[in-house]
Design brief:
The complex is a heterodimer of chains A (149) and B (172). Chain A is of the alpha/beta class and 149 residues long. Chain A has four helices and seven strands. The chains are: A alpha/beta (149), B alpha/beta (172). Chain B: InterPro entries: Glyco_trans_28_C (IPR007235).
Amino acid sequence: MVGKRILAIASGGGHFVQLLRLRPGFAGHSVHFASVHPDMASEVIGQPYYSFRDVSRADWWRVPLTLFDLIIILMRVRPQVIVTTGALPPLIALALVKPFGVRTLWVDSIANSETLSGSGRLARRIAGTTITQWPQLAEPGVDHWGSVL
Amino acid sequence: MTAMDTRAGNAPDVFVSVGSMMPFERLVHAMDAFAQAHPDLDVLIQIGRGRTEPAHARWLRLMPPAAYKAHVVGSRLFVAHAGMGSIISAIEAGKPLLMLPRRQALGEHNTEHQMATAVHVGCRPGLYVAHDETDLVVRAAMLLADSGTAPAPISYFAAAELTARIKAFIDA
């Protein structure tokens, strides 16, 4: 496939469901998906899918496992662009690629309608571009481009 | 006590999901009690990593995406936490959703964002918010008697304005 190598990555549950709804935005490129449940491969048949071990602030001691999985995925995909809908593991991936000139887009989850997510607040400094799905949360450095619904 | 259900087969009358990421004991307890009070109804609960194994409802921990979608479509009533995966699944299926928001104050999530979701997303047609467990079982019975408005079916993709800008970002 022609085009750029895109890594579309998200945690489980609603994060990945939102990422799937962004697929028309990836048209014409070579898209590699990554999330936490191996089962989700069935949602992106015909495109490469990788799973990684999840971590959140509540179980932060699992970070080394997630870090290991993410490094393997990044070395295999060698993405030129990363798009994510959160949460903590993709933020780690964005931090890992920051020195390498990878273009990165953080789409804050639609579940955060009154404040940016904790990861989203950090993403403002780590991601190349950070956007919110709620117009009332737009601020300097955080644009609103629309929502997944 | 019922055994963990391994049949992915028939859609239940009432399909309940706590999502895939964290346990939600309050929802499981309430809907197991609902199953006890309505022995004529087939209630299936996806309990995730929860500690409580339902005694009256059928249950399983996590099912593959295809089975999950089939249960959302095939059940008479879908009940879930106020998580975006559940909400988007219901809207994509054009299925009414009754949701009980997780409370940070009760240790059910990291923040109170599901209360915000209940206000800002729960106002869409076809979505119903329960304030607590008592309200939940009353609304469940009411929605089974009259399933109310279904969400307007939407496409499986985000608004074109958003995906067009994402495409422009990638292409640049």
